């Protein structure tokens, strides 16, 4: 069954990036119908762009089966969940002067394009996040960064502070559906910085309560091997950078470094605002991945040069039958 969003795309998205968008959505539907599983990678500021409104539904309706994301996307979904009412919007962000930016800083805001996140929410989440890390140290437990938030969801300590419908948080959906969330380069985030600071201050005694990037890669490899035994696996990449690069490298690692016989990624699509550039990974065309033992020459491949905050919800809406 298709709704008005799907019908609109069918009627209007006929050429250029619009056609590529519709072709991606149709192909994703077919891939799922054929029993495929899909990993989504999130770069950029997708959580602050509130992609969770549609991505959470994709997770809950079994259209997405794993996530690889930047540390910023991980924490900013939580920030949005518990402090959305305190955010400050600046629709004229293109016109801000350095003095305007400094004024926002003095008022306790950190700007992400048109959205200013209050420093207070970061400190509130920090208190709970570091408490779990401290308990992990005592018990000798190591967690993925996302699993620390999952533990906070399990404890219920954040729920009294929810300011958006729980249905709109993609991380909460991932916890509810028990899908893995990998966060390479976690240190490149507010909570990653805070975690390192607490170790430096000896308020935490070790970095080992959070799994390192290579430990996360091992978990991703194990997930891929287990999933590949049952289903083909596809890759939907939003933006470029470490979230996508980390996850897609699991396949050549398994084939070339572990010498195991598995399928390559069986379906691939990317949304990027970067065009092919000199040495720029985010602008690399999908065909380049064939040379790196990531995609086969037969793999369905789609490259959409557009704004993911516009295109991704439309694709998700089509896949969901909206």
TrEMBL record:
Keywords: NAD
One Pfam family here: DS
InterPro entries, sorted: Deoxyhypusine_synthase, Deoxyhypusine_synthase_sf, DHS-like_NAD/FAD-binding_dom
Cellular component GO terms, alphabetical: cytoplasm
GO molecular function: deoxyhypusine synthase activity
Protein origin, superkingdom: Bacteria
Keyword hit for NAD: yes
Gene3D superfamilies, sorted: Deoxyhypusine synthase
Family: Belongs to the deoxyhypusine synthase family.
Protein name per the record: Deoxyhypusine synthase-like protein
């Amino acid at each position: 069954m298709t709704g008005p969003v799907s019908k609109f795309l069918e009627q209007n998205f006929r050429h250029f990036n619009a056609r590529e968008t519709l072709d991606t959505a149709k192909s994703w539907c077919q891939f799922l119908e054929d029993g495929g599983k899909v990993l989504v990678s999130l770069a950029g500021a997708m959580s602050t762009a509130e992609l969770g409104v549609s991505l959470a539904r994709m997770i809950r309706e079994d259209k997405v089966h794993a996530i690889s994301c930047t540390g910023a996307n991980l924490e900013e979904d939580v920030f949005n969940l518990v402090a959305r009412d305190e955010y400050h919007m600046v629709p004229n962000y293109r016109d801000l002067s350095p003095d305007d930016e400094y004024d926002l800083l003095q008022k306790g805001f950190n700007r992400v394009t048109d959205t200013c996140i209050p420093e207070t929410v970061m400190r509130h989440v920090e208190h709970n996040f570091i408490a779990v890390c401290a308990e992990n140290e005592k018990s000798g437990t190591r967690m993925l960064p996302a699993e620390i938030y999952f533990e906070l969801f399990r404890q219920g300590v954040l729920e009294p502070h929810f300011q958006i419908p729980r249905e709109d948080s993609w991380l909460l959906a991932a916890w509810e559906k028990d899908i893995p969330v990998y966060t390479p380069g976690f240190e490149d985030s507010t909570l990653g910085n805070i975690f390192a600071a607490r170790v430096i201050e000896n308020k935490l005694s070790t970095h080992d309560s959070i799994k390192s990037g290579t430990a996360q890669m091992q978990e991703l490899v194990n997930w891929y091997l287990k999933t590949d035994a049952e289903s083909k696996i596809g890759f939907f990449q939003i933006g470029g950078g470490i979230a996508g690069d980390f996850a897609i490298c699991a396949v050549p690692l398994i084939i070339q470094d572990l010498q195991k016989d598995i399928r390559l990624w069986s379906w691939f699509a990317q949304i990027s605002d970067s065009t092919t550039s000199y040495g720029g990974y985010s602008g690399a065309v999908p065909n380049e991945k064939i040379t790196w033992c990531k995609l086969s020459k037969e793999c369905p491949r789609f490259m959409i040069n557009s704004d993911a905050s516009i295109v991704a919800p439309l694709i998700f809406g089509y896949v969901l039958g909206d």
